[in-house]
């Protein structure tokens, strides 16, 4: 009789899910009907279970019955109790129980999971000795046991497949077995009394191992593993991001309050004495930044509207508008301005402009103003004065791709579905291809392609922002931007190029596919290096866990795996280290269109809305691996 995986999962949900994180586990069969989040089936049986960071608590005993599991990850929850007998999990290949509050010993039955490639039990409260069974696991590559309360000596582990090993931060003692001296000291640090290479040599009396009766007196020394309070739970990434964002928001509020206060005081003073001719001194830009350039009368009110833009307001109106700071970038600060007639524009206040005066700036603006395409943010007007340069753009109401992907990864987040991601990828590719072609023989690059420069209009149509600005900026601004998106050759040449844009665009595609940010969320992106997304994806794909690279949010959609792999291939060729191996943007557009050739990726808005998108099922081995801890 086939074991009932649905019953096992429902029992687990009853025990562990007091917060309702698994409320879409409805119906009786997890492998039929609407998918259960985190559950992947093959041939009608539960095959992968990914339940990371969901505040689950209680025991996982009920999962012991899922005998077809290849992958189980429950990392970063609050699960408790002993680890169940492993003998039912004979097919298990990837097992992540780390970051919980499991207690008791590691069962001997771990030796029965003969297919196991990765075992991560780190950061729990496991005690007892390490069972001497790991030599049975001939496929094991990762063994992470750090941050527990394990005692006794480390058994000999002769398995040469293991390349990722740590027992740091336990209470182990005795000499390190010879078979493990190939690992760094960091794999062993923070134990009570471990000795021998790669740590310091054992005193003669201690080697080879400490007798068990003296173990309780051994105290752990400072551990390289993050300390955890007993019974406490660590902050999830989402919570950390929320705290950081909260802090930043609070800081911005305080700053804003200060500026408003400062501004009011200035305005009062200005009311007392009449302003000098031409000084821009309006206070209605509530962030108060945008105020004090001295202008000769001749330059006053010269907001220059570009070809095709209706001249609908004056500089005065702009200065009177209520404004909200959108963010600071490497070219200056962007504001959202709501004019008195209700229309909304985005205003960029430039810093560090390197043109040879007004004429050159105007020429550049006229050039930028001529560019028209549905996938680029239109520049409507500009303002030039000695200490003040403003650019006025259409405001894009759905913000940037960066904030859509990484802005709120915590509870309450609206996932970004696959069709929208594909649509954004194609729109942005078309916008950039247009810019590359339009500049034709001059080969003018964008020079700053990244997800915060891909903006979304009300229909989630992707538009490229900030084009044409890289050429205006001083080299210091140019070198500080682009962390995480910069092509490798840029380190030597410092020159921007269309080929380097293609590389940056490849990073954006990887961001869409993985959900990972190449620059840390809400940090000062200009100054901090983020993760090297191309390198990370390469390393995961090389290990043949291709499915693992994809954003967990995309796991709910069926039948999109082929398309995701298709887009991954496009991304990988874009991030080729050698510039000449990268395709042109026009070719990239074609490749993305080909991902859904007969379903009309090249269609208009309506076409996109109607494209099919059903939750994903990954069939057959190998299972995907969760991100490294
Ligand atoms: N036209 C616009 N409509 C809506 N949001 C915008 C607009 N222009 C810029 N923003 C948003 O304002 C914020 C600041 O933009 P800005 O271009 O100044 O900096 P950046 O894109 O983060 O960095 P960089 O200057 O290097 O491009 C970003 O989050 C961006 O998405």
UniProtKB/TrEMBL annotation:
<dbReference type="InterPro" id="IPR032675">
    <property type="entry name" value="LRR_dom_sf"/>
</dbReference>
<feature type="region of interest" description="Disordered">
    <location>
        <begin position="214"/>
        <end position="233"/>
    </location>
</feature>
<dbReference type="InterPro" id="IPR017441">
    <property type="entry name" value="Protein_kinase_ATP_BS"/>
</dbReference>
<dbReference type="InterPro" id="IPR001245">
    <property type="entry name" value="Ser-Thr/Tyr_kinase_cat_dom"/>
</dbReference>
<keyword id="KW-0325">Glycoprotein</keyword>
<feature type="compositionally biased region" description="Pro residues">
    <location>
        <begin position="620"/>
        <end position="629"/>
    </location>
</feature>
<keyword id="KW-0677">Repeat</keyword>
<keyword id="KW-0067">ATP-binding</keyword>
<feature type="transmembrane region" description="Helical">
    <location>
        <begin position="240"/>
        <end position="263"/>
    </location>
</feature>
<protein>
    <recommendedName>
        <fullName>non-specific serine/threonine protein kinase</fullName>
        <ecNumber>2.7.11.1</ecNumber>
    </recommendedName>
</protein>
<keyword id="KW-0732">Signal</keyword>
<keyword id="KW-0472">Membrane</keyword>
<dbReference type="InterPro" id="IPR011009">
    <property type="entry name" value="Kinase-like_dom_sf"/>
</dbReference>
<dbReference type="GO" id="GO:0005524">
    <property type="term" value="F:ATP binding"/>
</dbReference>
<feature type="compositionally biased region" description="Basic and acidic residues">
    <location>
        <begin position="270"/>
        <end position="284"/>
    </location>
</feature>
<keyword id="KW-0597">Phosphoprotein</keyword>
<comment type="similarity">
    <text>Belongs to the protein kinase superfamily. Ser/Thr protein kinase family.</text>
</comment>
<dbReference type="GO" id="GO:0004674">
    <property type="term" value="F:protein serine/threonine kinase activity"/>
</dbReference>
<keyword id="KW-0547">Nucleotide-binding</keyword>
<keyword id="KW-0675">Receptor</keyword>
<keyword id="KW-0433">Leucine-rich repeat</keyword>
<dbReference type="InterPro" id="IPR001611">
    <property type="entry name" value="Leu-rich_rpt"/>
</dbReference>
<feature type="region of interest" description="Disordered">
    <location>
        <begin position="270"/>
        <end position="293"/>
    </location>
</feature>
<feature type="binding site">
    <location>
        <position position="348"/>
    </location>
    <ligand>
        <name>ATP</name>
    </ligand>
</feature>
<keyword id="KW-0808">Transferase</keyword>
<keyword id="KW-0812">Transmembrane</keyword>
<dbReference type="Pfam" id="PF07714">
    <property type="entry name" value="PK_Tyr_Ser-Thr"/>
</dbReference>
<dbReference type="InterPro" id="IPR000719">
    <property type="entry name" value="Prot_kinase_dom"/>
</dbReference>
<keyword id="KW-1133">Transmembrane helix</keyword>
<dbReference type="Pfam" id="PF00560">
    <property type="entry name" value="LRR_1"/>
</dbReference>
<keyword id="KW-0418">Kinase</keyword>
<dbReference type="InterPro" id="IPR013210">
    <property type="entry name" value="LRR_N_plant-typ"/>
</dbReference>
<dbReference type="GO" id="GO:0016020">
    <property type="term" value="C:membrane"/>
</dbReference>
<dbReference type="Pfam" id="PF08263">
    <property type="entry name" value="LRRNT_2"/>
</dbReference>
<feature type="region of interest" description="Disordered">
    <location>
        <begin position="595"/>
        <end position="629"/>
    </location>
</feature>
<dbReference type="InterPro" id="IPR050994">
    <property type="entry name" value="At_inactive_RLKs"/>
</dbReference>
<feature type="domain" description="Protein kinase">
    <location>
        <begin position="320"/>
        <end position="601"/>
    </location>
</feature>
């Amino acid at each position: 009789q086939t074991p009932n995986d649905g019953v096992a999962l429902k029992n687990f949900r009853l025990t562990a899910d007091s917060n309702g994180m698994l409320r879409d586990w409805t119906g009786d069969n997890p492998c039929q009907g609407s998918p259960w989040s985190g559950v992947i089936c093959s041939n009608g049986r539960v095959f992968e279970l990914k339940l990371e960071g969901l505040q689950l608590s209680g025991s996982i005993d009920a999962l012991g019955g899922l005998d077809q599991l290849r992958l189980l990850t429950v990392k970063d929850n609050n699960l408790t109790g002993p680890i169940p007998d492993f003998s039912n999990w004979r097919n298990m290949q990837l097992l992540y129980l780390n970051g919980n509050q499991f207690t008791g010993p590691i069962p001997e039955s771990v030796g029965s999971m003969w297919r196991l490639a990765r075992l991560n039990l780190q950061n729990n409260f496991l005690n007892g000795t390490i069972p001497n069974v790991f030599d049975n696991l001939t496929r094991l590559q990762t063994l992470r046991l750090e941050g527990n309360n394990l005692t006794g000596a480390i058994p000999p582990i002769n398995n040469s497949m293991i390349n990722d090993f740590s027992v740091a931060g336990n209470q182990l003692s005795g000499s390190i077995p010879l078979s493990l001296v190939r690992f760094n000291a960091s794999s062993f640090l923070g134990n009570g009394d471990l000795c021998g290479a790669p740590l310091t040599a054992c005193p003669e009396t201690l080697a080879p191992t400490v007798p068990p009766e003296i173990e309780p007196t051994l105290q752990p020394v400072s551990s390289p593993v993050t300390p955890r309070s007993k019974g406490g739970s660590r902050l999830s990434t989402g919570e950390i991001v929320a705290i950081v964002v909260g802090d930043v928001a609070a800081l911005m509020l305080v700053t804003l309050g200060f500026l408003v206060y400062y501004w009011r005081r200035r305005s009062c003073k200005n009311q007392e004495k009449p302003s000098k001719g031409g000084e821009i001194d309006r206070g209605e830009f509530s962030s108060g930044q945008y105020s004090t350039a001295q202008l000769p009368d001749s330059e006053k009110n010269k907001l220059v509207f570009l070809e095709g833009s209706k001249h609908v307001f004056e500089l005065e109106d702009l200065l009177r508008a209520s404004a909200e700071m959108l963010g600071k970038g490497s070219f200056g600060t962007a504001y959202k301005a709501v004019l008195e007639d209700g229309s909304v524009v985005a205003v960029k206040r430039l810093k560090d402009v390197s043109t040879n005066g007004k004429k050159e700036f105007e020429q550049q603006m006229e050039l930028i103003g001529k560019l028209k395409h549905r996938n680029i943010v239109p520049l409507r007007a500009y303002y030039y004065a000695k200490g003040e340069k403003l650019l006025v753009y259409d405001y894009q109401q759905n913000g940037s791709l960066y904030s859509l992907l990484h802005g709120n990864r915590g509870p309450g987040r609206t996932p970004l579905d696959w069709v929208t991601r594909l649509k954004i990828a194609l729109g942005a590719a078309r916008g950039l291809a247009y810019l590359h072609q339009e500049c034709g023989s001059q080969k003018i690059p964008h020079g700053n392609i990244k997800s915060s420069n891909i903006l979304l209009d009300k229909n989630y149509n992707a538009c490229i922002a900030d084009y044409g600005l890289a050429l205006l900026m001083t080299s210091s601004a140019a070198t500080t931007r682009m962390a995480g998106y910069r092509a490798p050759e840029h380190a030597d040449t410092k020159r921007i190029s269309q080929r380097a844009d293609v590389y940056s665009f490849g990073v954006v595609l990887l961001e869409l596919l993985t959900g990972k940010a190449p620059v840390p969320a809400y940090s000062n992106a200009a100054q901090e290096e983020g993760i090297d997304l191309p390198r990370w994806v390469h390393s995961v794909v090389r290990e043949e866990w291709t499915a693992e690279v994809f954003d967990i949010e995309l796991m709910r959609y069926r039948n999109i795996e082929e398309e995701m792999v298709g887009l991954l291939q496009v991304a990988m060729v874009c991030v080729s280290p050698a510039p000449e191996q990268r395709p042109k943007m026009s070719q990239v557009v074609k490749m993305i269109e080909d991902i859904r050739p007969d379903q009309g990726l090249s269609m208009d808005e309506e076409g996109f809305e109607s494209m099919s998108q059903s939750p994903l099922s990954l069939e057959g081995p190998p299972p995907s691996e969760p991100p490294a801890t």
